[in-house]
Each structure stands twice: as structure tokens, then as C-alpha cells.
Amino acid sequence: MHFFLIQTIFSIFGVVLNVILIFMVFFKLSSNSACCSAVIIVKAVVDILIAAVAGLLLERILSTGDSVIIIFTGLCFSHFSCFTGHIFLNSFHQFNLIWMVASYLFRHCILYRKSPTPKIVGFSVVTISLPLLIHNIIWINLFTENTSFTAPKIFSKPGDLVLAGWVIQVSSEVVLASLGVSGLLVLGFYFVVRSSLMGFLRRNLARLSKRSFIYNSRLLKTIHLQSLIPIFISSGTFIFFSMHYYILDPIQVQFLPILLYTISTVISPISYILFLPPDGNLCFGVSKNLKSKMNAIESVTQTVTNNGVHDVSVF
Predict the structure, then answer these.
(1) 161-163 and 59-63: which strand pairing?
(2) What domains can you pick out in the chain, each with its CATH number?
(3) Half-sphere exposure of residue 285, counting CA atoms within 13 Å on the CB side?
(4) DSSP bridge pairs for 60
(5) What pLDDT was estimated at residue 83?
(6) Cβ-based neighbours of 242, under 8 Å, separated by 6 or more
(7) CA 156 to chain centre
């Protein structure tokens, strides 16, 4: 019962916080940040879908070593609809991780080349979505061959909708393994973009406008906090495979994987709500420490005669 309450709370928070974030982007963020606005909105919409579907399904996925079992206690009324929701939920998580890598690449283009247009962002969404959609359709079609819909009584109660069988086992192993690998890759990209951004700030300290310095300083904090997303996803995957290979007791940890996945939906909006630049920030203005750094940059910039002021957008 406590799990269902916590799961529902995080699902509601995930929806509400991402709606607030979309409001901030539309009405608070600077109008010349079209690329970053598009990137943030795409991530927020997918987070809303994840939180909403997770809250409706209230699923938990576990492994006894011999079989993989998915148990639903939410608002799904047939095995087919539950499996379809489960497959799309995992594909949304996969999209999020790939989208984080794409946003890092966009960040690199903004720093060293030029800002991608919203059309490029839209094309990236389609390019990422199509393979995931095809992957979902394949598993959903295979589900008709699944014949097992029972679970040990220790894991479920009367009224729960249960999925098991070879399709459930193979699809879960493939999808969760890809999530775990993607999470580790995103962490690797995080360290690269963090190093790139810090190097950019050091090399261009005298050329940055005050607005650009604020943006990029806040971006570093945002990236730091968002690194928790792949950590949570990879941790959930690790727990699942630890159950599968008898390292962890499924009775004790069966609720953790999906809970960690759901918590990941609130990290991105929290990071942006806290650390968006002052012209889009709803919580904080410019700190005294940041103001002093800005004044130092301004004085340095005034002494430089041959360097222009470089303005960079952020997401």
C-alpha cells in the first residue's frame, strides 16, 4: 500500500512539475531561445507521458530467476492493454535517455557552431521516435503468442492483473538491458559535456556577456542535477537483473525498479525550475556571488578592445 501511495505521489508531481516547466518556457524564457525552448518542451512532454502512464498502470516488474512477472494494480482492464502500456512506458524512458544525448549534442553546436533550428529539433524527435515505435509494434504483435498470466501468490493478490510467459521475459530482458546501457552512455556524455562547458567558460571568460555567463553558469548546475536521471534508470535496471540472477530477494525489492524510473521524471523540471536563468526563473534571482562574478566579467570585458561579446543560449 505504501508503494502505491508513493508511486501515485511521484506520478502526480511528475505531471504537475512538467506542466509548470512548459508554462515557464512559453511565458518566461527569452524569446530568442527557440532551440532550447523546443528541447525543454519535448523532454517535459515525454516526462508527462511517463508520469501519467506509470500512475495509471501502477505496475511492478520482478524476476524470480526462472521467470519475469509484471503485476498491474492500476487502471488497465485487459492483458493486452496492460502490456501495450508497459511497452510504451519503457519506450518513453528510452526516448528520454536518447533525447538527453541529443540535447548534449545540441549544446555542443550552440557553443562551437550555431544554434540548431526548431526544424532540426523536430526532425530529431521523429528520427528517435520511429525506431522505438517499430520496436513497440513488434513486441505488441508477439504478445498474441503469450500464454502465461499467473504469478506466485506471494507476489500478487486477487484482482491484480498479472503478465508472465516467454514474451514478457524476453521483452523485459531486452528492453531493460537497453535502458541500463543507455543510462551508462548518457552518464558518459554528461562528463564530456560538463568538461566542454567548463572549458568554454574558462577560455571565453573575457568575451562572454553577462547574460551568457549567467546562462552557462546555471546550465552547469542543471546538468549536474540531471545526471541523476541516468543514474536512477541504470539503478532500476541493476536491481531488476540482481533479482533475475538471485543476488537480491524479489520480495524485498520488487517495488524499486519502477519507482526509480518514475522518480526520474521529476528531476528535469526541478533542475530547470531551480536553475533557469533569471529572466526565466520563478524561484531565484541572481545570487550575490553570481553578481560579483558578473561585475568582474564586465570590468574585464571593458578592457578588451579586440574581442566582441559572445552571447550563447542555454537549455
Answers:
(1) unpaired
(2) 2-303 (1.20.1070.10)
(3) 2
(4) 71
(5) 92
(6) 248, 253
(7) 30
Smallest CA-to-CA distance from 171 within 51, 67, 60 is with 67
Predicted confidence (pLDDT) per residue in 258-305, tens digit: 999 999 999 999 998 888 755 555 444 444 454 454 444 444 444 333
pLDDT value at residue 195: 86
- For the chain, the first-to-last Cα distance in angstroms comes to 38
Contact 206, 304 (CB under 8 A): yes
- Look up the pTM and report it: 0.84
Instruction: Say how far apart CA 171 and CA 137 lie, in whole Å.
Output: 12
Q: Which residue type sits at 169?
A: Q
Which amino acid appears at position 189 of this protein? F
What is the model's pLDDT at position 301?
A: 40
Largest CA distance in the chain: 77
Render the burial of 214-247: b for 16+ CB within 10 Å, e for the rest: bbbbbbeebbebbbbbbbbbbbbbbbbbbbbeee
Cα 7 from Cα 308, distance rounded (Å): 51
Give the total residue count for the chain: 315
